[in-house]
Description:
- By secondary structure, the first copy, chain A, is α+β, with helices and mostly antiparallel strands.
- Chain A has helices at about 20, 40-55, 60-75, 115-120, 145-150, 200-210, 225, 255-270, and strands spanning about 5, 10, 10-15, 25-35, 35, 75-85, 100-105, 120-125, 160-165, 170-175, 180-185, 185-190, 215-220, 230-235, 240-245, 250.
- Chain A folds into 2 domains: about 5-105, Aminotransferase class 4, branched-chain amino acid transferase, N-terminal domain (D-amino Acid Aminotransferase, Chain A, domain 1); about 115-270, Alpha-Beta Barrel (D-amino Acid Aminotransferase, Chain A, domain 2), CATH 3.20.10.10.
- The first copy, chain A, is about 30% helix and about 30% strand.
- In chain A, the strands form 2 sheets. In chain A, strands 8, 9, 10, 11, 12, 13, 14, 15 and 16 form a 9-stranded mixed sheet that branches. Chain A has a 6-stranded antiparallel sheet with strand order 2-1-7-6-4-5.
- In chain A, β11 (about 180-185) and β12 form a beta hairpin.
- Chain A starts with a strand and ends with a helix.
- At the A-B interface, β3, α1, β6, β7 and α5 of A face β3, α1, β6, β7 and α5 of B.
Amino acid sequence: MDCWVDGQPADSLSLKDRGLAYGDGLFETFAVRNGQPILLDRHLARLAEGCVRLAIAADIQLIRQELLSYAAAMGEGVLKLILTRGDGLRGYAPDPAAPGRRVLQGNPPSAYPAAHAEQGVRLFPCSTRLAKQPLLAGLKHLNRLEQVLARAEWQDSEHAEGLMLDQAGRVVEGVFSNIFLVRDGVLITPDLKRCGVAGVMRAEILFQAESLAIPTQIADISLEQLQWADEVFICNSVYGVWPVRAYAALSWPVGPLTRKLQTIARALLDA
Amino acid sequence: MDCWVDGQPADSLSLKDRGLAYGDGLFETFAVRNGQPILLDRHLARLAEGCVRLAIAADIQLIRQELLSYAAAMGEGVLKLILTRGDGLRGYAPDPAAPGRRVLQGNPPSAYPAAHAEQGVRLFPCSTRLAKQPLLAGLKHLNRLEQVLARAEWQDSEHAEGLMLDQAGRVVEGVFSNIFLVRDGVLITPDLKRCGVAGVMRAEILFQAESLAIPTQIADISLEQLQWADEVFICNSVYGVWPVRAYAALSWPVGPLTRKLQTIARALLDA
Lengths: 271, 271
């Protein structure tokens, strides 16, 4: 399907766009099923927060309408929205009134091996550490060189994802996933106040767990805590939940809470 | 003058470009005088280092030829080169053989008030702190949201630049400049091993100072050391050298070493 730029079919972008010049923008990646973008409200809430924090004067209702129209036309697949600050002149100073530029890109459904979800995955131990930047932490912004460097660290297919630590050695996230661990029946996920992307599926899983009266905790997580976890899994809004069976010398069984939350995520994504 | 993309006149970019998707690339901004890009070798050396560190397989000799041709055609002004990793598919994994995409953009000469160079400038105290990321420190890469946030902190024309600290409170750089201070005849500039852009004019000034047997030092600099400086100035490869006369409650006279190095920079830029 054709891309859209500001609501119109297009295959190219202005060379003055600040998304290109500075990574000055945000993105969201939606699973689309039966013409519907899944977890739309959560994606739009994160986008809106990013617009506030980066001071991009975007019209979220207009973006919602475009996403719904585009998803209806594509039917099934993965829909990526890039929202940049739009064209700039020379220099970093942003125009506080700029409404942003909307780029929609449709892709076929992701084709991950079924074994990732069934048997679980091995995580590559990335040496690229995430920098502490509270002003950008949580946002899905376009400054993603750390993820590019981390993903370039392995080429084998044995590792489906990589685990990223921060510079103090805390466990933060995967390259394109969030991470959870289970210990003594408590579901724990890293605090993302210093770095990391606050994933939409992460938020949904926390919400679902609370609905099921499963105790949850958002906290700093050390590698030692990871070692003592009963279950570990990763998630994102496209593939749902993958159990983690190994990271470096550590390994875990696929546990019952992982399976329960995986089933819930799958139901959402197969809607 | 028209932009060039990969050597051809163009006004737009592929929507699949990883420069847009992830800020996955580098840039350089050249002053052009009499059809020549100034400090070309230093710019290309930094670009080449960036290509090695980001693993972009760019042809630096081809880029040199394109820059020379473009500068010759534009005559006078500011020439920006953006080198992205080129088109990508979905996902962060980079293609290690990708030769990169070259975008050249010509702009008229910068029109800064003459007073900036003559009387010196006041620096805005930016509250946006630079994150520590040794893997990217020194590079002029496309992940520039910290600079966008910092530059958005002031709108008045009283402040020509802003000063950025790192998260430990060390003095690092301006938003679009490097900073030097002079103390007891020694020229000191911040160590950029944790964050910051290793500016081409910074490198040239260090080289020129050493040629003049002026002692130089690359070191961590605290705000207290800034307070006790005899002279302070900022620099970049477009405007040369601006004396700094004030930052928050601090002020400095425009000193003789600043003037000497400013004259040298001006001679380069007026070549």
